[in-house]
Amino acid sequence: MQAALTPHAVSLAGMNRNVLRKMDQRGPRYTSYPTADRFSERFAVKDYLHAVSDRRGMGAWRALSLYLHIPFCDTICYYCACNKIVTKNRAKAALYLSYLKREIAMQAALFSGMNHVEQLHFGGGTPTYLSDSQMGDLMAHIRAHFTLAPDEAGEYSIEIDPRTVSVERVYSLRAQGFNRLSLGVQDFDEDVQRAVNRVQPEEQTLDIIAAGRTAGFRSISIDLIYGLPKQNVMSMARTLGKVIDAGPDRIAVYNYAHMPHLFKSQRQIKDEDLPGAEAKLDMLSLCIRQLTAAGYVYIGMDHFAKPTDDLAVAQRQGRLHRNFQGYSTHSETDLVACGVSAISAVGGSYSQNEKTLDEYYARLESATLPIARGIQLSMDDVLRRLIIQRLMCNFELSLTSLEIAYPIVFREYFADEMERLRLLEQDGLISIEDEWITVESKGRMLIRNICMVFDRYLNQDLTQARLAGMEATPQRYSQTV
Ligand code: SF4
């Protein structure tokens, strides 16, 4: 069980900057383990069918989590690293919907008799790129194929771009069954907005938040980013002040990952406009201080929530979970994801759909699920996934409970990892006792670095790279600080 952190407990001011610099490496965000870059094309539809039939064979009744990916956006935000398609041609969305509905029907047939849904999330792209009537049609299709838990028991969320919705649309989304809103804001500062090609007037965002409240949404969350061009500590403080005044239930503050070698639109961002590493640390420090001082609980990594929000309650009760949408309160669910590039997690498997529209459509035309790659987890993968989950969500690990659940002696099985953990202990990020590994308050921000110790694939890569005298840090990952 976790106690809420006080403002001072998570202040970066007390942290040795040398430690922070040492920890500022590239690394995964662990929305899954193994991470998606480890998926293989050897994993095929038949493997997914096995995972579903294992679930049926176990006779276990577990609720489902559904994810729907809507890849379209009106305009490009330069910082974006999402899988999206920027177009003003709305006919593309109509065609996409026809295929998405086919995939939903195929998945529903597979899960027939065990299709109870407790969590539904629309992500993108921009889900509100769909018109009101298209969204109503899609939700009716989902309800016709899956059994959705009643409003009070289910968590039905949608990411919205305040530039694409009106107050009336917010009411309509609530009537269509959504009860959680997630708003992309990033920064209220106009210079920053111009520099990233996302001009979003403050009043527009505040109006949508107010509409969300009066329409009866249970939870409203706001996404911010630190490390954007033209940002500095002063502008960040002003944005945070405005966000606190708006009072969302959850706030996510993401670290901008500048990787122009991977994401073309990021090449529009001028290097000289980007804040340096020290300024980014100051901004992160400020976010933690200002938000916790305003009463938000620091959940971990990049998430904050009001103490009364489900996320904070779930963390206090030790039942917080982490999946592709970030932190979640629904741990005992399999995730069925539909749409181009979407990733499902069923039983001990992950599977990802085709990444381009043409391939996605072609697979559905031939009446097969559009799965392109995936992975079947070994016992070692499942064990490490559990450890990473516990560390990211509970910030502590009971070695005894792992030894009871798995045929291992922890300190022998993870002998190499224990050596690396001792170094983190010397830096004050964790403490190691006979039966427990506990993440210290300073380590919470660097939880990715701590989890990286248990990533067998990453450590194999690093060892090979070092032996070959090459750059040791994989370029496809973002900086951890
Ligand atoms: S940040 Fe969101 S709205 Fe902007 S391009 Fe990316 S997916 Fe689209």
UniProtKB/TrEMBL annotation:
Keyword Ligase, does the record have it? no
Q: What is its main location?
A: cytoplasm
- Report the cofactors: [4Fe-4S] cluster
The molecular function GO annotations come to: coproporphyrinogen dehydrogenase activity
> Where does the source fall among the domains of life?
Bacteria
What chemistry does it catalyse, as a reaction equation? Answer: coproporphyrinogen III + 2 S-adenosyl-L-methionine = protoporphyrinogen IX + 2 5'-deoxyadenosine + 2 L-methionine + 2 CO2
Pathway per its UniProt entry is:
Porphyrin-containing compound metabolism; protoporphyrin-IX biosynthesis; protoporphyrinogen-IX from coproporphyrinogen-III (AdoMet route): step 1/1
Every Radical SAM core domain range: 58-294
EC number(s): the record gives 1.3.98.3
Identify the keywords attached in UniProt to this record, alphabetized: 4Fe-4S, Cytoplasm, Iron, Iron-sulfur, Metal-binding, Oxidoreductase, Porphyrin biosynthesis, S-adenosyl-L-methionine
Instruction: Write down the SMART domains for this protein, in alphabetical order.
Output: Elp3
What is the protein's known function? Involved in the heme biosynthesis. Catalyzes the anaerobic oxidative decarboxylation of propionate groups of rings A and B of coproporphyrinogen III to yield the vinyl groups in protoporphyrinogen IX.
* Record-linked NCBIfam families: hemN (TIGR00538)
- Family as reported in the entry's similarity comment: Belongs to the anaerobic coproporphyrinogen-III oxidase family.
Q: Which PANTHER family match?
A: COPROPORPHYRINIGEN III OXIDASE, OXYGEN-INDEPENDENT COPROPORPHYRINOGEN III OXIDASE
User: What do we know about how this protein assembles, alone or with others?
Assistant: Monomer.
Q: Output this protein's name.
A: Coproporphyrinogen-III oxidase
